[in-house]
Amino acid sequence: MEWKDRYALGIEAMDATHREFVDLVGALSTVADDAAISRLEALIAHSEAHFEQENRWMKESGFPPIHCHVGEHRRVIASLKSVLFLARRGNPGLARIVAREMATWFENHVATMDAALAAHLRPWFRERQTFPGSGKAQESQEAGAFARGPRRAGA
Ligand SMILES: [Fe+2]
Ligand SMILES: [Fe+2]
Prior knowledge:
Elements lengths: L11 H18 L3 H29 L4 H23 L5 H18 L1 H42 L1
Helix pairs in contact: 1-2, 1-4, 2-3, 2-5, 4-5
The site of one fe (ii) ion has 4 residues, from helix 2.
């Protein structure tokens, strides 16, 4: 699996995480049996953090289809964990099969659920960066100028 431009959703943190996901799935798809379990564990650790971050953004921003998207993440983690269980029991080759499944899953997930989330988050991030940020910056600049004035005068 390789990165494709159409995966980019225009939110830097999300795109960086998705690049990492694509790299991990790509590596897993051709992994040797003796490295399959550690590679699979790495993909699971990444996916848990990746999905938790998206779940947190959904919650904080009030994303309407949150349950659908969170449920999808939960199902993927459960599948990966059951494959890990079987791989540990002597079927390491399953890791390569699940990598191909994950590549197909991601193609669809990024184009639908993650794309919808990104479209919802873009204005939300913009507002958070613009309104609270500039307000605070202005306030603290004024407070700073005010505080510096008397101190300098007193020194
Ligand atoms: Fe994602
Ligand atoms: Fe997602």
